[in-house]
Fold each of these.
Amino acid sequence: METSNARTPEEYIASLPEDRAAAVREVRRVIRENLPDGYEEGMQYGMIGWYVPLDRFPDTYNGQPLGLAALASQKNYLSLYLNSVYGDPATERWFHDRYAESGKKLDMGKSCLRFKRADDIPLDVIGETIARADLDGFLDHYRAARGSSRRTRNAGHGAANP
C-alpha cells in the first residue's frame, strides 16, 4: 500500500484487505495494551503511529512528534517499526534474544520488523518491547543520541540548540 491519506487509525484499518486488517488490528491491540503512559496514537507518515506528543517534547529534529513505533501495510508485507530497538544496543540485544527464544523467524532491518500475519511474530515480545519504552527513558536515550551538536528544526536559520 502506498502512503495512506487516512486521518485516523480506524480509517487506515478500514482501507485494508480483511486479512491485513485483521493482522493490523491484533498488533495494534497488543501495542495499545502495553503502551506506557504519555505516548499518543495517531497517524504519522501515512502509518499508524505511537509517539511523544509535541506538547510534551517539541524539540525534535524535524518538528514532528518523536515516534516510538509505527505500523503499516506495505506492498508485500506488514511493517512494524520499533524505534526503541533501533540505536540502543542493549535493547537491541535483549530484543533479538527474546525473539530467538520465541522460535519465530526474525525478518528485520534496523527498526523495521516485516511479517505477513500476526501469527508470524511473537506478540508477547512485541508487547514487552513496547512496555519497556517508558517515556522518560525513551526521551533520555533520544537526547543522548542527538548529542550536544544537534540543531533545531530551524537549523537552516542558524539556530542551534543549547
Amino acid sequence: MSEQVFKYDMMVEEALRGVVRKSLRQAATHGLPGNHHFYITFRTRHPEVDIPPYLKEKYSDEMTIVLQYQFWGLEVREDNFEVMLSFNDKRERLFIPFAALTGFADPSVKFGLQFQSSEERAPGLETDDFGPQLNVEEQKTRDDTAPPSTSGEVVSLDHFRKKQ
C-alpha cells in the first residue's frame, strides 16, 4: 500500500490565493472602500498571462499592478481575473491567472501575502495539478525516518496581524 503525501504547502498556497480571489470579488462587486487598494504582483512569463506585448517586454519577468482609483471591468473567476488599467492614457486589458501571482498587498491595513512560484520550489520536486511531488527515484532512496528535506516552510501569520 503506497503512502499518500500531504502537500500542506500547496494547500496553504491555494487557501491564500482564495483570500486574493475573495478580495477581488468584493472589489468587483462593491468597489474599494476607504483607503483600501491592492498591489498585485505576478509573473509575466506565466503561459496563461495575457498582457500587451510592450508591457511584457518592459516587465519581462514580474510586474506589479495597483488597483485603487482607476480600474475598469474587473472580472474574477475561479482560476483567473482580468482588469483594464490605464498605461500612458490608454486602457489595456490584463488577464492574470491566480497561479501566476507572487504577491498581494493591501497597504491601507498593512496586509500582505507572498506566493512561491513553481520555479522557486526545491529541486527534486515535480509539480502536477495538486502540487509538488518527489521524483520516483528520490522517493525510493529517501530514508523513511528522516524528515523530508523538501518540505514547506512554517510561516507565522503574526507578522500580518494588526497590532492592538
